[in-house]
């Protein structure tokens, strides 16, 4: 068991196209088994941060310009995304991004491709237990499913790789509240069952703060507020910008 | 007469289908429109010449030699020429494969000389008469092997892990990458496969005609074939190949060899104007 | 002042060049083949025609972002229109050139029509289809009205003065090249030219800025094809005989290669590309032979396989430029100038 945080970002800065600075000197850590919320308005850089951690910036013509990312003490700054996934970091991207022409089973198999067959079978079985709806639609093409089902599939695909950390980007986007609540419940189950650490990126601060231990607020690429979920939820800043008027108590 | 043309059209079309399939694999997996597919076919024919004449390999040995060399060549091309251009706009992607075909042609002519080389593999010869139709053994062999290769490829694509990852990458490159797929390896594999398929097609066409760079013109027909069938559809490519083979035989037989171009490229133009995603393809949302 | 001096020297060079190439003498002194890069005036004349083709393609592809492999077809069309106007209609030389240009413009509009329906790769394919269809038509026209061996063009006479030598052709072509380049350059500077560049770079933005993208695209195509057809007609007259076989897809591809090597998006890039295309074979072989850079047998091999070696070098050059220097030679030149200023 490595001491220290599972995921550690130090002084991480990044830009797109060599010019547009999108992350400024970000420090952030995720303890093993911990749940961290990353909040911020549209365009604050939340997705860019996820891309920076998972090695996907080059795909979008971006690059890390300074700082480091470590997982379990191992430096992963600048590594290829496939290596990073093999080191235990999986992603549930914004917009789901399921493989539309592949079946549910095939989608999960792709996720499980980075681990052994035996492990993969186990993990996929666990995903089906967690999401019975997916088991029902095992042979259905992913593109034909509803938004909520696709979200479950994206989550399942990420879990199929037996990750130590999950990066979840805008889980609630475009989904009905009741479905969102259900999926968040399942996130709790995942944490309980596998002890997976999670970074939950949400515009809907309320949801994230309910489920997470600590929270960070990102504004224009820089962290402007950090602390326990309760502290952040109760802060003036949060109450004004993200949780409604001053009079309303957030939680 | 018609039956004869239809029969040879079908048989020849099977070989075209193989080349078109190789093309479609490369396109579906790596989104690269490989203008050099015809030249890769010619390379296959010349590799067969080297294998049988220079290395004195038996038929199966020549096959193995061609397949292995083509696979290596395909992977090499992807690594050296295609990968550096990842993410670039259309023109560089189109031109790099055109530059590749220029390089391949010049290399072939430098290594093997300008004229064509006869390929005399120990393949079944002679012909048989079925009703009014005369079918040559070599045509049947070529078609049979082509269908076998296509079948093997479909099985690989559907059922193997690498095939699954290839399909995933074709479905959504970004989703595949973030799921841990090594895109570079998959792309190299796609190019290796596409080149092997073209090379096998070239081997047969070289045997049927002559191993020469003029084979490229035939290979170039794979492009309209794939587009008519549907760029995004693997079965579409095969059907496109069959159609082109049929049209070619019918046009050459009834009118003249020159007419072939018209009967293939006019339908191509029509398809592009009316149904650009091809007969079996899927309409892509947004700009085509 | 220095600019005027530079341009005057360049102009003087251009005027004196044909005489140097013809007589192989400079100011009375014998000059070796190597110094003249193994060039003959005939090659330079053909290069001038290629320049017209290259800059018109660069206008279409580099500036307007429309990728086309149909350029050889427009050359064919121009030749066909000039031959038909000259032979069948009995029009004089200059009139046939005008006819070729107009035919090209019309054909350009037709060729551009698919772009209203499809874009990108599918559009390139439509230009490829058009290539084969046009060349086929040329062949049919040739067999129907002329000889299987080729179409013989009429005499190129302007007001009684016949263009019957390389030098005369040179002085006829050179002003045309300068005119075409200047015209295209000025179009780029003005409103419609800027609209074109905007359309290339970001079509959606251009459209929302009120630019009628569809009409503009057709205009650009018409313009570029008109010039290319003119070049085709000129080439046909220069060669005195043309046949369908010479208009290959390879030719069209070579034009695209030229503008990539020269640098897309600028007129000078088109010129540079055509010049390199001309100079490369001579320079390559000449250097190797003269400098005795390789052992005898290898040099022999090189000389006897010159076309293939040149093609190989060109292919590699295009590939390397695509990967490392997408701006082509013009881009490299600009970078150099920028660095010197800094």
Class based on secondary structure composition and strand pairing of chain A: alpha/beta
Helical stretch tally of chain A: 10
Question: What is the name of the CATH topology of the domain at 1-88 and 166-171 and 197-243 in chain A?
Answer: Rossmann fold
The residue ranges of chain A in which pLDDT falls below 50 over 5 or more consecutive positions are: 244-251
- Strand composition percent of chain A: 25-35%
Which bin fits the share of residues in helices of chain B? Answer: over 70%
CATH class of the domain at 1-88 and 166-171 and 197-243 in chain A: Alpha Beta
Shape annotation of chain B: globular
Which runs of chain B of at least 5 residues are low in confidence (pLDDT < 50)?
none
Number of helices of chain B: 12
The CATH superfamily label of the domain at 1-88 and 166-171 and 197-243 in chain A reads P-loop containing nucleotide triphosphate hydrolases
Structural domain tally of chain B: 1
Which quaternary structure do these chains form? heterotrimer
Main sheet strand line-up of chain A: 6-7-8-3-9-10
| Biggest pleated sheet of chain B | 2 strands, antiparallel
How many strands in all of chain B? Answer: 2
- Count the beta strands of chain A: 10
Helix/strand structural class of chain B: mainly alpha
Q: What is the correct CATH architecture of the domain at 1-88 and 166-171 and 197-243 in chain A? A: 3-Layer(aba) Sandwich
Shape of chain A: globular
Distance between the termini of chain B: 41 Å
